[in-house]
Design brief:
The complex is a heterotrimer of chains A (446), B (306) and C (298). With 446 residues, chain A is an alpha+beta fold. Chain A has 16 helices and 13 strands. Chain C has 298 residues and is mainly α. Chain C has a two-stranded antiparallel ribbon. The longest helix of chain C is centred in the N-terminal third of the chain and has 34 residues. Classes of the chains: A alpha+beta (446), B mainly alpha (306), C mainly alpha (298).
Amino acid sequence: MRRTRGRWRGRTALLFGLVLAVVIAGCSSGSDPASTGESARKPGEKITLTFWSWVPGVDKAVDLWNSENPEVQVKLEKIPAGNSGGYAKMYSALEAGTGAPDLAQIEYQELPGFLLEGGLVDLAKYGAKDDAGKFVEWQWRQVAFGDGVYAIPQASGPMAFFYRQDLFSRWGIEPPKTWDEFRQAAQTIRAKDPKAYISTFPPGNAGWFAGLAWQAGAKWFGVEGDTWIVNINSPETRKVAEYWDGLVRDKLVKTDPDFQNGWYKDLQEGAIVGWVSAQWGDAILAGNAPQTAGKWRVAPIPQWDTGSFVSANWGGSTTAVLKGAKYPKEAKDFAVWLNTDPESVDLLIQGGYGWPAAKDALSGSALDKPYDFFGGQKINDVFAEADKAIDQDWTWIPTTAATYQHLGDGFQKAIAGQGTFVDAVEAAQVKTEADLKAKGLKVKAG
Amino acid sequence: MTTLVEPHATRSGGSPAPAEAARRRRLGPELHWRILVVGLLTVFAVYFLLPVYWLVVASTKSTDQLFGSFGLWFSEPRLIDNLRNVLTHDDGIYLRWAVNSVLYAGVGSAVATLISAMAGYALAKYRFRGREALFNLILAGVLIPGTALALPLYLMISKVGMANTYWAVLLPSMVSPFGVYLCRMYAATAVPDSILESARMDGASERRIFTTLAVRIMSPALVTVFLFQFVGIWNNYFLPLVMLSDPALYPITLGLTSWQSFADRQPELYQLTVGGALLSVLPLMVAIVVLQRFWRGGLTEGSVKA
Amino acid sequence: MRSRRSDRAAAAGFLAPFLLLFTAFFALPIGYAVYQSLLAVERIGPLGLGGSRTVFAGLSNYRAALTDDAFLDSITRVLLYAVVQVPLMIGLATILALLLDAAAARGVPFFRSAYFLPYGVPGVIASILWGFLYVPGVSPIIDLLDAAGLTVNLLDSGSVLWSIANIVTWEFAGYNMLVIVAQLKAINSELYEAARIDGADAWQVIRHVKLPLIRPAIVLTTVFTIIGTLQLFAEPLVLRPTSTAINTSYTPNLAAYTQAFVNNNYSLAAAQSVILAVAACVLSFGFLRLVGRREDDR
């Protein structure tokens, strides 16, 4: 009897200790994540950096680096795209204090969010400012905050209009130069083929909508001193919202989500014959609708005014070094190499990572060639023009993801018959101000 | 309705008792009634089996055919190739996920069953102050949605540095308030006090009485608790989703959704998701069908008192 | 007669492992969620580069949660869903159980297995499966209906909640059926004899003998269905990319997950979790009380 109880006690004590550890840790209010365990690599020491990314083609670039740098190996782990769960993974790993990679792909609009949570290493400490000259200026501005440099630019997404040239010419439609013509083209397409649409309006993809508002001259966010200025509900954004609301109401565009099975099927079968998208869209089309090879072309994005040509940017990524990285210097060196080395950039271009952030990376690269999928068109001439016509002062806020949700939720409601797209924009304005306040930040309406 | 039904789970579940069969013959339903019943049963069976049939068909197709051919019939079947791709993709990570799932569900439910048996037995067979209050507290645990707990649990576990480890999923899976509830109900009726007393007279320790006598008598309920918890852990998604970020620790559920979530850039992953789903679903479905008689015993005991 | 003291010691030994784990993984998280939900962060500088501190925020997170129309929508949505789903699920399970009970013995094991089989399919995988059967252009069901001249969209705002309900029903109806079947089997066959002798037809036997006797099983499955209903998460999460009608706060769970892992607002997420847990307890206790009172009235 005594022996039995002793054994009980031993096991119980073990469990109790475990529980106690949880309790104590749970109650301590100090919320410092694990202290940075960074260290300097000794010469000759072999290290491995982990890298989370979802860019197609990045595996080849990493292989190239690994073959050239036996001492600093990079282990690539593919993760879901940021807004499809990739960022949630990163945030939860950062919060957990274990399991976060040394390097991660982070899009421009999410950088302030990671910065606010203290998830990024200031690369200025490791000499990143010397690399500024290697990158396109406006993309560098997206990664520099205050005195710090918090990521290495990778790529952007200048926008244009992809369309099915074979169908457009069969129906006698010219690629639209203005948004008015875009609407007329949409009507003609509906009349010519009851199954076909010029495009979809993806209600859940507010990043795309942000690009269109950007083109129209909106400037959603800004900083004055230490106060955020939120100006989503501006005349420019409302104009874009009303325009697409009209197209949706008149059933001139689909409202199915993009990047989904149904959408790919529509692209393959000619049920969707156009796409206002970024340069990296070429790889999406070529990869998911291979049977339509040779039939697509690219035209400049439709314009609001016929004056000076204006384009926009959709998406774009950086390579960031996450908090807790053991070897931030080596991680930074890899990130700079990945995004500037001509061979690496070429591999990334072939994978379809976007428009290079590296200066002068275009000429002679894989982008600078006729493209078979687009019937031999040198489509990147179109994107080069677009890239020059982007308003370069756009900034993002730490709660961009929430703003995207608010817009997406509002658009979905409107499509379900509750309210309009403009209502969605107005609601997003109010809610975004609240989001920033909830983060303990100062904010005012623009 | 407070009388307890005598535990009957010791009877093998397969064929009805002779008296029951006789009753059925005598009360034999009329022909049109029987046709109606079988007709309805068939309609429901089609409903329940249709997605499984679709899965089997889909897993034989190439990615192109998956989207390009009619979903309910075969087209250029290549099942073996597909399954090989599932098992070899990304250095065979799928097998790793399968092992993880078995580990989480197997270890978690085994420990949960043991702990629940001990607690349920104690609540049924010992008298002490606060017993009913404690039991009600555990009942309240049954009523709290596991997903409401998962978030705070994640925050706590990350504070102690256990997030993104096997323990983060295993430890919470070892608690089954419902298991305790079932074990108490079962032990109260099935384990006679007289046997316990006579064992004590013979000088057996309390622990020995439990491990040799009680566990054996309670075994039908324990099997039920084990299966219930096993399926619960196996099917769980929220807990591993919030706890784990390293794919090497994923269970199958999380792994397959991660494949699906980057299929837009790598369309071949759609086929892998489908093939992986088939591989994961088949063994468990077979087990479910084979073991279904064990879902009977314990559950009624619990429900009678509810 | 043994002393109460040794009883206590033995019971404590048997109960200790469970109670420790229960405390660590049930009671503490609830306490921690309550604590976390009372906090907020204050920051210096537009990107918090000037530093941050955690402050006591009173009930402001609860106020934020309960005035957020998206979160309130998610609650009304699952309540609406529960009002339909719970009776549907339990009704179907009961009908299946009664049908199996009524059918001749041959074939019954096959049907029972067929209905129970989906219980072995995890919710996310069931959602991936049904997702393929819902997406226009891919789904053979929609193809067939199209061919028959019926155009349906199973993923738009009007129908997606019921498409989700279908997935959940498919997964769990067979399980609930099995619980009820087990109770039916426990009914003493003499009761049927007695009813027969009194001249009751099949319907009357169901109405007056079987249904009252399987009531406990129905109560049990109902409580579990209520809890499961409020937990709705995996199905909408998996279907979300394919449906424009599912937003990031479609269910309370999804809203809390989004707050925690997309917006990094753990305090608000904790407040939402607490609200959900309280709601689940109130509803299921309420249901049990309701059932209990009716019992007493008899």
